[in-house]
Design brief:
Elements: H1 4-11, H2 30-40, E1 52-62, E2 81-90, E3 105-113, E4 116-123, H3 136-143, H4 154-163, H5 168-174, E5 189-190, E6 195-198, E7 204-213, H6 222-231, H7 235-245, E8 250-259, E9 286-295, H8 300-305, E10 318-320, H9 324-341, H10 386-394, H11 397-411, H12 416-429, H13 431-449
Antiparallel strand pairs: 1-2, 1-9, 2-3, 3-4, 5-7, 6-7, 6-10, 7-8, 8-9
Helix pairs in contact: 3-4, 4-12, 5-10, 11-13, 12-13
The structure holds protoporphyrin IX containing FE (HEM).
């Protein structure tokens, strides 16, 4: 124990050590060094992507037993409450990117179950840009500012959609008004990647997870998003925090789509392709449970910034599929976290699991027989445009008009060759869409000349 004199000695540190009252500061001042070095090293390295985010906490309860499909303990019986931690994020950009920017929102949930941690990483749009993890670093660089001057570069962005025709479905979702959001209480969440559920009898199903906001889905137009970006760049985080602070719990329903793996042989697309959705009429959403977010972080740095979500944090009965994006993700998250949080990141309180060892990781697919020639190849049925067409045709006239405006107001600033290729892709989605985008770009070009 320390006595009062020692405490006083330790707290008297508001002046650097100098020679005389106004003399030079001494290099030997260990108190000064310790204070400044603590400051320099006190921040956590930002995430490589999904940098800007907000956290909230609460609980999940199962409303429908999923025993028939998975042996995961927390999904066997109804009504038991499990603590959860959630982090909402913007997939691209930095800490200063406006919440309303056209962007993919991340929606990650950690379930602290009796069997260990289960992390469910979702995005607010159901499809991804590409179907193979090996293309993702290039995608991220297309979505990043110019390395020359750190400014957004339309050619960088639009050459992504020219280079990767499979990103056309994502183009329909991201450049519709679904790409702009002002409240996280009103977004959906989609696992995008396909996982596997296995029941106690060893029967496997493919599974896609969905969160549905109980307060209803809401998006905003590009004009409103741009206006709000100036008014309050942190509007979505503030809205989440203020609502929870006022006692308005934020709730989502968890649903799943399940598929017999044999169906893959019959479908016109590959169900493990992340650029595709599964038809909700053919594979209806089954309700699983409810999440209630009812308290805010008390220490953002410790409780949210240090959360280390990992799609490989699975439980017996919850596994990976052969989805090529998901398989690439299986090891990159803990790699990123070792770099970002240090090798001891699993012992940080928000990440800690009692008695954890590597053998607690779930090895997917035990017992399956797999054979074939080793190769690097495109999947047999890439089917790059059919679902983009379906999505476009599902929009109302007003939604189509906004999509055209959102695409053409950006594409106009790309290089002519990039514009040409993107318009060819749009032609494949719908000749009418390509025609409207072309005409709108001519109008923008005229206005710019004047
Ligand atoms: C091969 C493809 C992908 C790679 C290499 C990748 C990589 C990463 C990395 C390195 C992080 C930061 C992790 C950290 O520092 O804690 C991250 C975060 C995240 N990723 Fe991915 N990702 C990929 C695809 C996806 C997909 C398809 C989704 C769709 C659900 C997704 C959702 C997220 C979310 C929600 C976060 C934020 C997690 C948080 O809030 O901490 N990622 N990703």
């Amino acid at each position: 124990m320390y006595n009062n004199n020692e405490q006083k000695r330790c707290s008297d540190v508001s002046h650097s050590q100098t020679v005389g009252v106004r003399g030079p500061v001494l290099v030997q001042d260990t108190v000064l060094h310790e204070t400044l070095e603590t400051f320099v090293f006190s921040t956590t390295r930002p995430r490589r992507i999904h940098t800007k985010g907000y956290g909230a906490f609460g609980y999940f309860y199962t409303t429908h037993s999923m025993k028939q499909y998975t042996k995961a303990g927390f999904l066997q019986t109804t009504n038991q409450q499990i603590p959860v931690a959630v982090r909402f994020s913007l997939a691209s950009g930095n800490q200063g990117t406006p919440d309303t920017s056209r962007n993919v929102r991340g929606f990650s949930t950690r379930f602290y179950t009796d069997e260990g941690i289960f992390d469910l990483l979702c995005n607010h749009l159901p499809v991804f840009f590409v179907r193979d993890a090996i293309r993702v670093p290039d995608i991220i660089s297309h979505l990043s500012p110019s390395p020359v001057n750190n400014l957004p570069d339309p050619e960088r962005l639009w050459s992504l959609f020219a280079k990767y025709p499979e990103a056309t479905n994502m183009l329909m979702w991201l450049f519709s008004d679904m790409g702009t959001v002002k409240s996280l209480r009103h977004i959906k969440g989609y696992s995008v990647s396909t996982y596997v559920w296995q029941n106690a009898q060893g029967i496997r199903h493919y599974v896609k997870y969905h969160w549905r906001p109980m307060a209803g889905v809401e998006y905003i137009t590009q004009q409103e998003a741009q206006w709000l970006a100036c008014q309050d760049p942190d509007i979505a985080g503030r809205d989440l925090y203020d609502n929870i602070e006022k006692g308005n719990a934020v709730e989502y329903e968890l649903c799943v789509q399940l598929m017999n793996p044999e169906d893959a042989k019959l479908l016109p697309f590959d169900p493990l392709d992340d650029t595709k959705v599964w038809d909700e009429n053919q594979y209806p959403l089954l309700p699983v449970g409810r999440m209630v977010l009812n308290h805010n972080p008390e220490n953002y740095a410790e409780q949210v910034e240090k959360l280390a979500f990992n799609p490989a944090n699975l439980l017996p009965g919850l596994e990976f599929s052969d989805d090529k994006v998901l398989q690439g993700r299986t090891f990159i998250y803990p790699d990123a976290q070792r770099h970002r949080l240090g090798p001891d990141f699993r012992n940080i309180p928000v990440n800690k699991q009692p008695n954890w060892s590597p053998s607690c990781m779930v090895s997917s697919g035990n017992g399956r027989y797999v054979s074939g020639e080793i190769m690097r190849s495109e999947i047999p049925n890439p089917d790059n445009f059919a679902q983009a067409t379906q999505k476009y045709e599902s929009f109302s006239a007003a939604e189509k008009k906004n999509l055209v405006n959102n695409i053409s107001s950006g594409l106009i600033d790309a290089q002519p060759n990039t514009q040409y290729i993107v318009l060819c892709h749009l032609e494949q989605v719908s000749p009418a869409l390509a025609e409207m985008a072309r005409n709108q770009m001519l109008l923008y070009a005229d206005t710019k000349e004047k």
